[in-house]
Amino acid sequence: MSLYIVDSTDGGIGAPLSSRRSLSDVDEIAERMTDIWEQAGVQLIIETTARIEASEDILVDLGNGDTASFLGDARTGALLIPGPGTINGFYVSRIGSANGMTPFGTRLFFVADDPSVPDERVSSHEIGHILGLHHVLDDSARLMFSGADGITLTGVEISVSRYAAIGILDGVR
Ligand SMILES: [Zn+2]
Question: How far is the CA of 146 from the centre of ligand 1 (A)?
C-alpha cells in the first residue's frame, strides 16, 4: 500500500486546493489502519508515502466528487505517482462532500482533509471496499457502516476481505 498527500501544482504545499496534511499525519494514519486490519489478519505493508502534485483542474473535479480526470491522468502517467503500491490512498483537500471515496472497481481511495470521523477509520473503511466489502446499514459499530466511527468486522467480512487480499497478492483479482 502506498499513501500520497496531494498538493496543487499551482502553489504546492499550503495552496488553497492542497491537502493540509503532513507526511507524519499520514504515517500515523497508516499505523492505526494497520491495527484495524490486524483483526482480519490482513497486513497492510507501507511501500511509499510521498507528496504529489495534481493540477487545479483535477483538484476542482475531485472537490466536486468527480474522480475521472484524476484517474485518467494517473492511467496515462500525466499524473506522477512515484512508487505506487498494490493499493494506493490519496489524501486530498476535498472529495465531494464525502469523508472518503473508492472509485468502483479500482484499488485506490481518496480521503478528504478533516473528515467527520477518525482518519484511520475513513481510510480503513475504504480499504474494506477495495477488499470486496459493501456497506452495512444497521450497525454503526461496524467498519462498513457509513459515516460512523465503528471499526469491527464480522466473521463473514473477515473471510471475504482475506479472500480478496489473497487474490490481489496472487494477481488473480
Ligand atoms: Zn463506504
Answer: 5
Residues 49 and 55: beta-carbon distance below 8 Å: no
**Residue 166 Cα to ligand 1 middle (Å):** 21
For the chain, the maximum distance between any two Cα atoms, rounded to a whole number of angstroms, is: 47
Please tell me the predicted confidence (pLDDT) of residue 30: 97
Separation between Cα atoms, residue 155 and residue 171, nearest integer Å: 24
Instruction: Report the percentage of the chain scoring pLDDT > 70.
Output: 100
Q: Which three cell numbers stand for residue 169?
A: 497478492
Whole-number Å distance, alpha carbon 123 to ligand 1 midpoint, is 10
Residue 16 CA, ligand 1 centroid: distance in Å: 27
| C-alpha triplet 90, 95, 101: angle, nearest 5° | 65
- Residue 100 Cα, ligand 1 centroid: separation in angstroms? 8
Alpha carbon distance 155, 137 (integer Å): 17
Distance of CA 126 from the midpoint of ligand 1 (Å) = 6
Q: How much distance in Å is there from the Cα of 58 to the middle of ligand 1?
A: 22
Q: How many CB atoms lie within 10 A of CB 122?
A: 26
Q: How distant is the alpha carbon of residue 29 from its chain centre?
A: 11
Report pTM: 0.96
Query: CA dist 98 to 34, 172, 173, Å?
Result: 22, 31, 27
